[in-house]
Amino acid sequence: MTATTPTSAERPTPAAEPAAPDAPGAARRPGYRRLPVQQRREQLIAVALELFASRPPEEVSLDDVAEAAGASRPLVYRYFAGKQQLYEAALRSAAEELAGRFTVPPDGTPTEQLASVLDSYFAFVAEHHTGYGALLRGGSVVETARTGAIVDEVRRVALRRTVRHLGVRGEAGPRLTLLVRSWISVVEASALSWLDEGGQIEPTALRDWLIDQFVVMTAATAAHDPQTAGVLAALLELDPRAVALLRRLGS
Questions:
Q1: Residue 17 in contact with residue 36, Cβ under 8 Å?
Q2: CA pair distance 56, 191, nearest whole angstrom
Q3: Domains held by the chain: number
């Protein structure tokens, strides 16, 4: 995913970080140190991501971010107009990281490659558990059309890369697109349930179940769509696991 240009609602990045606003002789905030502009902005985003990962976004204040970053609140405001802008920047950073985890390894069968991608995805979910749940459930006070667009772009990246992984050249038809979108929704819903239940299911077991879901959903769609039938035929030619699953279900 390419980096998204900051929204017009975000304040321009300052040309230089000012000195701490403390009076002469006053003790500086613990851990405070002057940083180059881009480094400070990245630090604030990284700190915000950690806080949003462990607490719902509406429970995180700019004071919390400033304290965790070892900076003053006015300094945070020099980089972000408010918490909403900081949240969107942090979300955009997380979205780019998540999209980067959709890279398919070059080796292995199709289901083994898909397993590798799901392993990366669930590692991300575990790292950003609270923030991930608040984001996908919606209803957060910081949820806007812009945050929804950021999340939707991650889904579009997942759709494009999954279709490409299936060997489709050119445009995916409506049934194949619906198949992949539906499976992505199953993955998201499974991740939320997994978080709600405290990770009672081993991630590898959940991953294998989702892979089997994909194979079965592909087989069901192939019965109604020639393009998906071609995808299924190629999958069965390359992947003994998929063949064994469908034989087992057909017996």
A1: yes
A2: 17
A3: 2
pLDDT digits (tens, 9 = 90+) for 196-208: 888 889 999 999 9
Q: Hunting for tokens 């915000």 — which residue is that?
A: 48
Radius of gyration in angstroms for the set of CA atoms belonging to the chain, rounded to a whole number:
22
CA distance 136 to 151: 8
Which tokens go with 73?
Answer: 């609140």
Length of the chain in residues, anyone? 251
**Positive or negative torsion for Cα 115, 120, 128, 184:** negative
Half-sphere exposure of 151 (CA within 13 A, CB side): 18
Same domain, 140 and 184: yes
Domain that holds residue 127: 101-250
The interaxial angle of helices 203-222 and 226-238, nearest 10 deg, is 130
In the structure, what pLDDT confidence band is assigned to residue 21 with cuts at 50, 70 and 90? very low
- Measured CA to CA, the distance from residue 43 to residue 243 in angstroms comes to 48
- The residue written with tokens 């909403």 in the block is 84
